[in-house]
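Structure ticket #2291
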Amino acid sequence: MNHIITLEQLTEALDNANPGDYAKIIKNIRISSDDLDRFKTWSTHCYTRNCIARTEKYELILLCWDIGAKAPVHGHGGEECWVYQIQGTVEEKRFEEESDGLKVTNQVVLTPGKLTYMNDRMGYHSIENISDQRALTLHIYTSPIDNCKVYNTEKGCFEMKNLSYHTFHGASIDSIV
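Resolution: structure written out below.
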């Protein structure tokens, strides 16, 4: 399989594949930051969720991480998730739930071109931008995720959270409603 260097090539490959073939496709991604310009949005000290494509078969989201931005510990609503690192450096920590809280089971640093995979059977994870620049990650899910378990550190337990986007197909959610 040839390298996938544009979003159009990626969405075409995903549209024409069975979900069981997604891993092979995703391992061939070589998309540059420039190809994602129309989907980038930024927010100070947090990350933004920018939906590039959403079908019955998959969801493709660009996360834009400001310096120091961190996602809370969360699950994936029963779906598979691949994260392709495009720009900057992020750290993924994986957790398992124990009677007295969460235990870190693994951590990995992702640099541009690196890929990680996660699903609920593997536990939970969190991602944080640990670089001194903004970071970009491309997330590919088998089927869209509308809600997931998120760890509430104040209460010491998981709660269901409805997920939303900052942009959809490049348009601000505020301008869509």
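Closing remark: The chain is about 10% helix and 45% strand.
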